[in-house]
Amino acid sequence: MALIIDGKKISSEIKDELKAKVSMLTRKGTRITLAVVQVGNDPASSVYVGNKKKACEYIGIESQAYELPEETTEEELVSLVEKLNNEESVNGILVQLPLPAHMNEDIIINTISPAKDVDGFHPQSVGALSIGQKGFVSCTPAGVIQLLKRSNISMEGKECVIIGRSNIVGKPMALLMLRENATVTICHSRTKNLKEVAKRADILIVAIGKPYFVTKDYVKEGAIVIDVGIHRNENGKLCGDVDYDDVLGIVSAITPVPGGVGPMTIAMLMSNCVDAAL
């Protein structure tokens, strides 16, 4: 029987640990504040922002919401971020992506102070990760590491294949797996013989953005499969990048969609917020 890795349960454990930590910090006079900036009213972004606010409330982190109209200029957004950088009471700044088409996301990410970059997207945060220095780590890959650790799955010496090379998941995921002493291969749209490469993996992490892409033809018997994708299928049901039903019979552990990696992203964001205040 495959282990179904329960991201909801593990993220709840992390949030409870953080709640206790924040309560202790508050008693000592340290308040933690996250500024959340959303431009426009993209429905998916609004759901994510709402979930982040709820998590803050549960843990005891104060959240400041900045809901800006779609027509806000890039200059106005830069000005707001710079103002938040200079506010001592604000520990973390999160600008919800994607931004409207008239804004350059790189400029906005670069404007956020690395000391308040709780999303872990600033080049300085990414650079620190790449050379093993302290800094904020992108929340989804950090969440995957916690899922594996808290499921008592050792990464050391394992062959890890990551399908997807995005700046937000694939690349930082590879660096984190290296930190855990795994042997790492990154695959992408130009990879030849993808099935054969994926089938070598003891741990297969899929972040390719294509529903049901990975079938059992890609998976070695007894492999651990982490599905980072999230989509709605033609029936409106949530699904991942992995054909869950197809691979379930041959894996030793797997994350479901929903309820796997998804809840961990917000838990790790909250963890970064607490770290920002220390």
Rg estimate, integer Å: 19 Å
* Fraction in beta strands: 15-25%
Chain-averaged pLDDT: 96
Distance between the termini: 42 Å
Q: What is the β-strand count? A: 11
Number of structural units classed as domains: 2
CATH topology of the largest domain: Rossmann fold
The H/E string reads EHEHEHEHHHEHEHEEEEHEH
Summary tags:
278 residues; alpha/beta; Rossmann fold; 6-stranded parallel β-sheet; 3-stranded parallel β-sheet; 16% strand
Structure, described:
It is a single chain. The chain has 278 residues and is of the alpha/beta class. The chain has 2 domains: 29-113, Leucine Dehydrogenase, chain A, domain 1 (Rossmann fold, 3-Layer(aba) Sandwich), CATH 3.40.50.10860; 139-262, 3-Layer(aba) Sandwich (Rossmann fold), CATH 3.40.50.720. Helix content is 40%, strand content 16%. The strands form 3 sheets. A 6-stranded parallel β-sheet has the order 1-11-8-7-5-6. A 3-stranded parallel β-sheet has the order 3-2-4, sandwiched between helices. Strand 9 (231-232) and strand 10 (238-239) form a beta hairpin. The radius of gyration is 19 Å and the shape is globular.
